Amino acid sequence: MPRTKTPQIKKPDTYEALRDKGESKEKAARIANAQAAGTVDHRSNKLDERSKDDLLSEAKEIGIKGRHKMTKSELIKEIRNH
Predict the structure, then answer these.
(1) pTM, whole model, 2 decimals?
(2) What parts of the sequence cross the membrane (predicted)?
């Protein structure tokens, strides 16, 4: 039977705090791991500075449906709320 790769949480305390606030498991894990890697600002505060193509790639990576029909501001909103 093949082994499946289990995602690892790099900052469990942050993850648990986000889950307690009602965030999804996926979003809490993504934020906790981004904080551990020191890239959290890239994802949240500087979205306005990124190109639409970059935002589309980000939306694809996190599984946002209908992303190609969205404007840049709609993409930013969806990424922030995902």
Answers:
(1) 0.52
(2) none
